[in-house]
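Session log. Operator J.P. requested a structure for one protein chain; no other inputs attached. Running the standard single-chain path with token output.
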Amino acid sequence: MIAAILDNTSVLADSRSRLIAIEPRLRLPDPLVLKAQAALSEAYSGESVRSSPLPDKDQLKYRLLKAKERVSAAAKALASFQRSAGSSPGSPELSVGIEEKRKKLMDDLDQAKVEAQEAEEELEQSADGDTNAEKLFDHVAKAGIYPGILKLTQAINGSNLPAATRLILATPGVYEYLLLKLLTDDRADPRDTEGLKQAILVGVSQEPSAKFFGALVDFYLKEARLSLDQRTTDLLALNAAGMNIPLGPPGKVKSVLGGLLDQLNTVGLLPSYVAQYAGRGEIAPTRFTQDIRDRMVSILGDFDLQLTPEGFAKGLFDEYFALAYREAVQSSRRGEDPLDLKHAKGQMGAWDFLVDTFENAEEQGVVKDNILAASVLYYVYVLGDVLGAFQFADALLLRRAKGRLDLSRAAGSKLHAYKLRRNDRMTVDERSHFYRRALNLGEGQVLDGTIVNEDFPQLWHGLMTEVAENIRKNEENSAAEEKASRASIEEAIRLLQYNLSTHMGDMELDVQELYRQFEEVKELLSDPEIIASVGGGRRQNMWTLMERIAAEDFDSQINVAALRTLGVEGWRILQFVANFDGPAPDEEFSMFRKSCESWIIAQAAVGDMAGPGAGGDDDDEDDFGDGGEEDGEEDW
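Structure written below.
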């Protein structure tokens, strides 16, 4: 019994920690950052949300008072009844009725005592002062919204957040304070995951960010033994927050803040105003690179504006900032090349002979949707054209035309509808063009002048090689060494991200159309009546249908299990690549590595991927399961 209670307590504690567990994902943080985070945590440990999900003390006292009054009334009623019942003899039937009433009065008294005890305990607990985390857990439990809040936390963890934003949210006390405030003070809908997420990100960019960077600047000034007036200190913190400065490795914060202070002494308040302008969201934040901000500061300085906080807040200077932004973008594209004098007006600015050292190379743009589209394109390539799903559907049309299929009107209509729509879908040449253009897969021809993604196969091979090496080391060495070797895998993933973000641009609609075409084919191949008409022995399903058509119509044997694994696991791998934004939790990384391992084994089984008619090996039919009907579509 005690063990069960301890197990339940452990599970409860784990579920609570998962509910508010924001991952910091910060390697080698600067000691100043850790000090600022500790100060932020201490600040929020005493920060209380006014609207508590628990009743306030006045309500609790009133509830206890009423409960005690009910106890007193029930006790008096019972005592009065016992006196009257003891002095009035009667028949046996009357005695039974008296006993039943006495029992009811005693039950009422017991219930009143229980309610009074609960009210007293709740009042005592409120006196202890619950933390915001405890209040949040209590509110989540009472409202029954644990799954929704857990989904929100997972969504935040899965987002590509700036390092400082993630660290602040991971600071004990901050996330639960913001979330509790939204749920209680603002009455936010706990089911609106995206709305809550955006509200959390807005909230963390305000007071928590100001406190964190304020503490960071204070610790920097103490360590550097500098004394600044409060206004300059506040501006330095504001600029640091607006720039999203790096938080590591050790010594980096001191260097960056020192440079910001020098800049502040040179150009005054302009960097802080540019940071505020960028934070308004009128232009995508990713476009406000540090180079663009610096150029805007320089351009605005030439305007000699008489900026005031009030005027800026009212938008009186917005046209100047917009103009500065446009000019900054144009000048960054010109690159201060002397040849620009031939095309651009004005004189060339002085060059300081500095070059880009690419310290922020990891911030290169990653377009998640492009990589997700690549995962589907790869999936359709393998299952649709390498395994041959598209060709098998055409083979069914040919069999129907020859009268070799015995189908009902419903099944025949499905095939006929596919035939009519086929001319509106992509042809094999068009599909081959997209495979080559985006992933450099297959032997298809491309249009003249097409930019082929020649690097993808090499980058993919590099990722698989790093994973295989990781698996080997994990089998030979300790777990600690295995974790340390992830860096090369993460670098390979980033290279894939940058590659696919570039080469999968403007292909989302094409991929969507291609997948819908594949789904139509899959519906035909998995139709029970079509499968039965073609035949397939004891194991009749979509996979055996493919094997039979390949053998009879293409005189070929195909390794269905291995090719299916390549398509499905390849899709899973690229889904992980698309969502990767830093070191992944062990469980997620383990699943990713398992997918890579399955892909590598399947690739070794099929060798050079080839479709129907090119030969193959199907010696091991049971590799993909028992072949029964239940195994048909679950893997899709």
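Operator note: The mean pLDDT is 77.
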